[in-house]
Structures are given as C-alpha cells and as structure tokens.
Design a protein that fits this description.
101 residues; alpha+beta; four-stranded antiparallel β-sheet; 2 helices; 4 strands
Length: 101
C-alpha cells in the first residue's frame, strides 16, 4: 500500500479514537477574564477636498469599542470596532453628508 493511501486511513483511525473519549477540559473551560472598553471621541475637523473643490467640515463622534477575553484554556481573544456618527458639510455649497459607518 502506498503512503498516499495509508495517511488518510491513519487520520480516520485517529478521529474515531478521539471521538470515543469523554470531553476534555478545553471544551468545558470558563472565561477567566473579560474586559470591555467603550470610548466616544468628539471630532470637529475642517479640510479642503480637492475632488469636491471646496472646504468640508466634519462634526460628530467616533466610537471605539474593544474587548479582551481570556478563554480559560490558554487563549486570549481581542476585538476592535470603530463607528462613525458625524455630519460633513461643504462650507461653500452647503451640501450635507451623514456619516454613519
């Protein structure tokens, strides 16, 4: 029998043996640490947009949300999110754009 046929058989045998065992500690581990940070930062920025041919002012908030969790099994998980809630106004044209993303 060639090695290419033996390896899949060994993999299947390993899965069958692994399935007959009781759940391990990793499956029942509880988080040991969890932290959430939620920060709102005000923005008020004015800049020239060459493609629009005018100066634009953005006023609003940027929300930064981060979480950190120790999963109790040796892993550490981080998440980061950013959300904009602002209005941009063309100072010459008066055009208004809502930024929500």
């Amino acid at each position: 029998m060639r090695a290419g046929r033996i390896l899949p058989l060994l993999a299947v045998a390993g899965l069958l043996v692994g399935c007959s065992e009781s759940p391990t500690e990793l499956e029942s581990a509880q988080p040991q640490f969890a932290k959430t940070e939620n920060v709102w930062v005000p923005i008020d920025v004015t800049f020239f947009r060459e493609c629009m041919g005018e100066t634009v002012r953005i006023v609003g908030w940027i929300k930064f949300l981060s979480t950190a969790t120790d999963d109790g099994a040796g892993g550490f998980h981080l998440t980061f999110h950013r959300t904009w809630a602002a209005t941009a106004t063309g100072l010459e044209s008066g055009d208004v754009y809502n930024l929500n993303f």
